[in-house]
Amino acid sequence: MISFSNVSKEYPNGTHALKDVNLFIDKGEFVFVVGASGAGKSTLVKLITREEKPTSGKVMVNGYDLGALKRRQIPKFRRTVGMVFQDFRLIPNMNVYDNVAFALRVTNVSFRDIRRRVPYILGLVGLASKARSMPDQLSGGEQQRVALARALVNNPSLIIADEPTGNIDPELSFEIVDLLNEINRCGTTVIMVTHEHDLVAKFNRRVITLDSGVIASDRNDWRSSDES
Ligand code: ADP
Ligand code: ADP
Q: If both were cysteines, with which of 2, 154, 161, 210 could 192 make a disulfide (CB 3.0 to 4.6 Å apart)?
């Protein structure tokens, strides 16, 4: 599903953001990626989405060798990955329905399929009644659920959520992670970047800790070893 083989990333200014990272994430896993600011979390995400290329090493995602990916293959690859961002990135002058439908309209999905698929996904994230609302009429938690719906609507095999709860009240943050958990239970691989340890502690999942560009720890037993 995702593999990093001896991956290093050095930015043009000489910053070594990732150093010889080896990583394997299997299909259907749920993984938290944690680490201090500057640890390399965003760089890891950008290498997975092919926004950045490694300086050395090999990145495989959803069967694509990203180093060998042709420019024209990038859109097709990106459709296998759903992205959720800290700042939601909704289109402000489109209602909830259209924000989600837009993600399908840019592909060649039929009108009929869009009319079926969008309500289904909005129901999944608990926003069926908000289809006609504009983003600025929604709470942060609701806006993030729209963003999640948009990420899901293409049926990606992988969801990457980069600090998805960073702009959300703590009580609602739990709901977002819970929803990601549900999505994962249906078979979608989920990678969530966060620095909220309370949230990580509530879900007994694999936790990869980055520190200065290296994987400092990678474990499944986070809760059992950290909670008394
Ligand atoms: P995190 O997401 O954990 O905060 P980043 O991956 O953003 O970490 O950054 C890792 C390191 O790479 C930091 O030292 C950061 O300053 C540096 N960095 C990130 N992006 C760039 C860039 N485009 N150019 C130069 N340095 C960068
Ligand atoms: P149909 O059986 O006529 O396709 P459904 O009500 O089962 O109608 O599906 C409506 C829409 O929801 C379809 O676009 C379908 O792709 C989607 N859908 C249904 N079930 C799932 C599911 N478990 N996961 C993802 N999408 C689904």
A: 161
Q: How far is Cα 7 from Cα 9, in angstroms, rounded to an integer?
A: 7
Spatial distance between the Cα atoms of 131 and 97, rounded to a whole number of angstroms: 5
Do 4 and 10 touch, CB atoms closer than 8 A?
no
A 10 A CB-CB count for 224 gives 9
Tens digit of each residue's pLDDT (9 = 90 or more) over 142-184: 999 999 999 999 999 999 999 999 999 888 899 999 999 999 9
Q: Whose CA is nearest to atom 23 of ligand 2?
A: 186
Spell out the residues 6+ positions from residue 111 whose beta carbon is closer than 8 angstroms to its own.
Answer: none
- SS3 at position 65: strand
SS3 35: coil
In the three-class reduction of DSSP (H, G, I as helix; E, B as strand; rest coil), residue 211 is classed as strand
Amino acid at 31: V
Q: What is the pTM of this model?
A: 0.85
Helix (H) or strand (E) holding 214: strand 214-219
Tokens of 227: 């909670």
Pocket of ligand 1 (CB under 6 A): 11, 13, 15, 17, 35, 37-43
